[in-house]
Write a structure and sequence with these properties.
Shape: globular
Order of helices and strands: HEHEHHEHEHEHE
Distance between the termini: 22 Å
Radius of gyration: 17 Å
Number of strands: 6
Structural class: alpha/beta
Number of helices: 7
Length: 196
């Protein structure tokens, strides 16, 4: 939806017919939720809850709880697909700084719980890979840390489907290596062409 409430980009009918398993979603943030939910319902779209990915909901638990209650009410009658976009700015589960790694893991885990309460099975996260940091040792550590973390997450949350979204990765081997090491049908990729 554009600023005037008009559709800016809409999937052509031929794409929908060719790929019936694809879900087309519109973002559902902190503002204009009722309008966006009505639009999604009218056009057979799903919603991607983006209200918790940055800003005040990250650090203000009272505000976060209030937004969660409002979204539960807003989505009570919505039957379309729901996806949750988790926090992603500055998250680094692979950080050598234990405090940063632990806070990153906490935020991801908290978002998975929130997503479940809001009826979202699919949850989108970013890996936080920085291609400007070179070296095989960095890449190997990055992959080992993420493989261990996502393996634990998938074991603790058997109803969650984790979609790792492309962002700064310069090739597919990061995803390929991680997915091969985990071998889970509940771990997938979310291709964001705007990040390509």
């Amino acid at each position: 939806l554009g600023r005037r409430g008009r559709l800016v980009i809409f999937p052509p009918p031929e794409i929908c017919a060719e790929a019936p398993d694809l879900e087309f979603l519109i973002p559902l943030g902190l503002e204009a939720r009722g309008e966006r939910i009505a639009f999604a319902r009218q056009h057979g779209l799903g919603v991607e809850i983006t209200a918790f990915l940055s800003g005040r909901p990250l650090n203000d638990p009272v505000f976060r709880s209030g937004v969660e209650r409002e979204l539960e009410a807003d989505l009570a009658a919505f039957m379309g697909p729901r996806t949750f976009h988790g926090a992603f700015l500055d998250l680094a589960v692979h950080s050598a700084d234990d405090a940063i790694a632990e806070l990153s893991k906490f935020r991801i885990e908290r978002d998975i719980v929130t997503a479940g309460r809001l009826g979202c099975r699919k949850i989108v996260f970013h890996l936080g890979f920085n291609p400007l940091i070179g070296g095989r040792r960095h890449r190997a550590n990055f992959l080992a840390c993420h493989a261990a973390f996502w393996s634990e997450i998938l074991a603790r949350h058997p109803d969650a489907e984790i979609c790792l979204e492309t962002q700064w990765e310069t090739d597919w081997t990061i995803f390929e290596t991680l997915f091969e090491s985990l071998g889970s049908s509940r771990l997938g990729v979310c291709l964001d062409v705007a990040h390509a």
